[in-house]
Amino acid sequence: MSDSPPDELPDERSFERSHELREPLVEPDRSDWEGFWLRFVAHHPDLKGSDPADVFAFGDHRALADELAQLVLAGTKTATTAALPAFHAVGMPLPKRGDLSVVLRGDGTPVCVIRTVDLVVCRFDEVGAEFAAAEGEGDRSLAYWREAHAQVFRREGERLGYAFDPALEVACERFEVVWRGD
Question: N or C: which terminus of the chain carries fewer CB neighbours within 10 A?
């Protein structure tokens, strides 16, 4: 996916400082997201009886999840990246084209339903500038993307038992918002 050779990872301290106060994500209340999903299904009768493929917040702490949910709602964030070992560690399948998922804020409040439109698996150091820009984060540069995601994957790897490395396999997902709850 990369259109240029991988650069060194940028100084990680600047991203770390911007996310120093990390309140943990709140476990979503099933009745909240289920009610949100049922309202969505009411507008799409062909989905009656179905469940979302996933219910999740972007990021690994409350402030980041809130920030990323806002970017999704604004249409700035249309892509996301996840470490392949994380899927294996929690026993979850990779997203597939057409999957519908409920996106949450850091406090567990549902904000929208997204549809997966594409998924590519590649190495972390092969992710290109165009995909990084589609993630919509920071200054939308590849350097920022690498710095921010390296930190998240390091923290996640400590929790889930994998080590971050620039050769880490990642799932690069593109999505579209299909319902905002209104």
Answer: C
